[in-house]
Write the structure tokens for this entry.
Amino acid sequence: MAGYTNLPFRMISYRHGACFAYTEMIAAKSVFKAYRAVSMMLPSPEEPFTGIQIYGSDLEYILKASEKLQSFGKFIDINAGCPVKKVIKKGMGGALLQDLNKLFEIVRALKKSLSVPVTVKTRLGWDKDEVEQIYNGLAKSGADMIVFHARTVKQMFRGKADWKALSRIRDRAIPVFVSGDIFSPEDAVKAIEISGADGALIARGAVGNPWIFSQVASLVDRGFYRTPDLEERIGVMLEHLRKNIEFFGEKKGIVEFRKFVAGYTRNLKRSREFRSLFMKVEDYDSAIDLVKEFFGSGVIT
Ligand SMILES: Cc1cc2nc3c(=O)[nH]c(=O)nc-3n(C[C@H](O)[C@H](O)[C@H](O)COP(=O)(O)O)c2cc1C
């Protein structure tokens, strides 16, 4: 997720059971024009299984960027699903679904020249459901895995994700993962059941809630899962905050962390007030004081 899945969030997610993760999407052209910014987004050697997601419209740029970055990640993923206007206006992201042959050609070219697996993150279609056509073409082009966010690009985030659409993919030669509207462990199990997918991708549901990854595994393996108590929630929130500060520096680390606070404090007493005060915090010590004031000194371990 652009703006979210930076190194601190990926590490917190792995520690709570995520099996694999992606970098934020990286523009192919920026690899040659803004490498300093790109280098901040690349996986670190300590990450168990992180793929590098690239977006672009030009085959040559995508190919060259992937060749240059491949050694940093476990796989290269092509974004063929982003619906953001400024991205699709330039023929990138979800716009690749307007010309499927071009998308298939990109995957074939990457497979020919890269030594890591090539995967695709996509949607059901541009403006209508073409899931079989997309699956068949990508599998034939050599893709190693496909994740479908079960909406069309035109839909953006409207309506409900249509998990069932993926069940039409028959005779799977490569793994298919389902994405969209998975906010609880029960949702993940249901999405996999209904779609027939090999696994599920969790995006918004993991923001400020990294426990969801191990909860899914526990629900599948043992039929139940544990819910973290207040001390654990605040403890992990502060650990995530410290990782952010270590990675971005104090000021930026705290500002970048604001978007995670709502998730970590959801349904806690006075959480709205806490969140609005946290938006004004500029240093770690003030964050700790605020936590103590709202949740008591006992939550700081
Ligand atoms: C803020 C935000 C940023 C996202 N950035 C990306 C991205 O960079 N690459 C990508 O493949 N999908 C991206 N997505 C889509 C998610 O990966 C996911 O497919 C979508 O949000 C549906 O899943 P969810 O309901 O679990 O959030 C983004 C979604 C959101 C909300």
Residues 1-3, 24-25, 53, 79, 81-82, 121, 149, 179-182, 202-205 surround flavin mononucleotide (CB under 6 Å).
